[in-house]
Amino acid sequence: MNLEASAVEKWFLRGKSGSNRFFAVRKTSLTLESGKVCVLTGRSGSGKTTLMNMMAGLLTPDGGKVILDGQDLYAMPDDALSRLRNRMFGMIPQGADVLPELTVMENITLVQHIYRNRAGSAFSAEAEEGGAGFSSERCEKLLEQMEISHLRDVQAKELSGGERRRMCIARALAGNPKFVFADEPTSDLDDENTRIILSMLRQAADKGCAVMIVSHDAEAEAYADRKWRMDAGQLQDI
Ligand SMILES: Nc1ncnc2c1ncn2[C@@H]1O[C@H](COP(=O)(O)OP(=O)(O)OP(=O)(O)O)[C@@H](O)[C@H]1O
Ligand SMILES: [Mg+2]
After folding, report:
1. How many domains does the chain divide into?
2. What string of DSSP letters covers 57-70?
3. Ligand nearest to the CA of 58
4. Closest Cα partner for 229 from 61, 93, 45, 39?
5. Three-class SS of residue 90?
6. Whose alpha carbon is nearest atom 8 of ligand 1?
7. For residue 231, what is the enclosing H or E element?
8. Is a pLDDT exceeding 60 seen at residue 94?
9. Three-class SS of residue 129?
10. CA–CA separation, 73 vs 58, rounded Å?
11. At what angle do helices 136-145 and 161-173 cross, to 10 degrees?
């Protein structure tokens, strides 16, 4: 299964009067394929997160399309896109995006529980059919693989940076997504944490996921099938 961006672009307004268009991403086409890890590098501010968010259904492009199985993501109604994202996409956002008062396990399962418990909604019907690919066994296994099983009932605010990051990877993989988007998943981490995280993402691809990693980490490139570089909003194959 492929996710295809076709001539996507994004601009923001800049300048004193806010009248200058600044292109964060210039017309870009790319395809994410099942089984492949793609690594996107580039200088700070070059448009990597903006591009990844457009691929992940989180940011509407100002031009172009993002197509999954013939469906244009941004032509879908909001609730259908949310449902698709919950079922198919796993996101590891840049920065620590955790609920500090909740435990590790609660952080990992929260979104899935919300979807299940919205009684009568299309979300809960789908979760009941097992469409989300989520189960407590799967979560336990992910905790083990990320080597944080012993922290399952610890509040997220007590975790170290590396532990928190590993929790975010487990959360992204909990719904058994077809596409995983990881924005700087190893920044500021030691070699051991970096290795655990990159090999987990590699394994997800080997099991059929399409993985997109934004990274400054040279090590990430060793796990890549495909490498791109972003330069002032322009994507280059390397
Ligand atoms: N919501 C926004 N409004 C205005 N400008 C934005 C917005 N989001 C991003 N930008 C600008 O677009 C450019 C690209 O931002 P983006 O976050 O994609 O960069 P990046 O390559 O991910 O950088 P980093 O490596 O620092 O994370 C930056 O110059 C940023 O200031
Ligand atoms: Mg970024």
Report:
1. 1
2. TSS--SEEEEEETT
3. 1
4. 39
5. strand
6. 50
7. strand 226-231
8. yes
9. coil
10. 10
11. 140
Question: What tokens does 121 get?
Answer: 């909604």
Give, as one character, the DSSP assignment of residue 75. G
Can you tell me the distance from the alpha carbon of 44 to that of 195, in angstroms, rounded to the nearest whole number?
23
Three-state secondary-structure class, residue 29: strand
> Which residues constitute the domain of residue 80?
2-237
- What is the structure's pLDDT at 131? 46
CA dist., res. 219 & res. 232, Å (int): 23
Cα atoms in the Cβ-side hemisphere of radius 13 Å centred on 10: 22
Position 128 confidence tier, pLDDT thresholds 50, 70, 90: very low
Ligand 1: centre distance to CA 192 (Å) = 29
Burial class of residue 112 in the structure, from the number of CB atoms within 10 Å of its CB (0-12 exposed, 13-18 middle, 19+ buried):
buried
- In short, whether 10's Cβ falls inside 6 Å of ligand 1 is no
- Counting ligand 1 atoms within 8 A of each CB, the residue from 26, 46, 184, 215 with the most, and so the one to mutate, is 46
- Position in ligand 1 atom list of the atom nearest CA 53: 18
Residue 184 CA, closest ligand 1 atom number: 27
A 10 A CB-CB count for 101 gives 10
Residue 205 has pLDDT above 50, yes or no: yes
Chain segment 216-238, per-residue pLDDT in tens: 888 899 999 999 999 999 999 88
Residue 177 has what pLDDT?
Answer: 94
| Cα separation, 107 vs 97, whole angstroms | 10
Domain of 128, CATH number, reads 3.40.50.300
Ligand 1 atom at shortest distance from the alpha carbon of 42: 21
> How is residue 152 annotated by DSSP?
T
